[in-house]
């Protein structure tokens, strides 16, 4: 069983920055793709960004130029740097893992492993 643990959430004002971390219990074919999803109250969970083991990244249009995903040296940790945050970024952010073939997919059902989530709140 893959365990994912998110950290780094918090409350910031619009225009501020946060860096989220996702620590995985393993670095195997089951975790070749690490993605960040978010879910705001009353809304569906949506994919935001993902990174392949190779370093290839995928972003949804709404976060391009503001968010950056990267892997740590050990590859077991993935970071999400979020800049110029806006109130519409407020959500619970979840880390998800799957094989490399699912990278670029924004369907939550394609990912087998999930963390517990970390809350991001952006005030205007």
Q: Quick gist of this model?
A:
By secondary structure, this protein is mostly beta strands.
Task: Count all strands and give the number.
Answer: 11
Estimate the mean pLDDT confidence.
95
Number of helical segments with 4 or more residues:
0
What oligomeric arrangement do these chains adopt?
single chain
Percent range for helical residues?
A: under 10%
SSE sequence, one letter per element: EEEEEEEEEEE
Biggest beta-sheet profile: 7 strands, mixed
Radius of gyration: 13 Å
* End-to-end gap: 40 Å
Can you give keywords for this protein?
4-stranded antiparallel beta sheet; 124 residues; single chain; 0% helix; 7-stranded mixed beta sheet; globular; mainly beta
Describe the structure in your own words:
With 124 residues, this protein is an all-beta fold. The chain has no helices and eleven strands. The chain has strands at residues 4-7, 10-13, 18-24, 33-39, 46-52, 57-59, 67-71, 77-82, 91-98, 113-114, 118-123. Strands 2, 4, 5, 6, 9, 10 and 11 form a seven-stranded mixed β-sheet that branches. The mean pLDDT is 95.
